[in-house]
TrEMBL record:
Domain Protein YjdM C-terminal: 46-112
Organism in which the protein naturally occurs: Halopseudomonas formosensis
Entry superkingdom: Bacteria
Descriptive protein name: Zinc ribbon domain-containing protein YjdM
Record NCBIfam families: phnA
Family assignment from sequence similarity: Belongs to the YjdM family.
Length: 113
């Protein structure tokens, strides 16, 4: 009998060790050996382009020129956006940008300042 745990995703008994983690060959799920499962709060946290957790009221910097749909304006690289508000959905940041107005941004195009 194997002392390895069953896969938490599909309950398969055919798991194996790979360095510092366990791997399931049936569903390709990987998890750490130390038993430290990510909590639901960690999974639902909104993160910037570098993996930093964002919170309401943070200041972020745009890391890529962003064209605004229906307009000829562009949000330039390096634009600082203060006092963001996090919302659910595809565009997960509500904010106001000086000279442009209210916008929704994707967290993958900003970094925490």
């Amino acid at each position: 009998m194997s002392a390895l745990p069953n896969c938490p995703a599909c309950n398969s008994e055919y798991t194996y060790e790979d360095g510092i983690q366990y791997v399931c060959p049936e569903c390709a799920h990987e998890w750490p050996k130390d038993g430290g499962n990510e909590t639901a709060a960690d999974e639902s946290a909104i993160r910037d382009a570098h993996g930093n957790v964002l919170q309401d009221g943070d200041t972020v910097t745009v890391i890529k020129d962003l064209k605004i749909k229906g307009s000829s304006q562009v949000v330039k690289v390096g634009t600082k956006v203060k006092n963001i508000r996090l919302v659910g959905g595809d565009h997960d940041i509500d904010c106001k940008i000086d000279g442009i107005g209210a916008m929704k941004l994707k967290s993958e195009f900003v970094k925490k300042s």
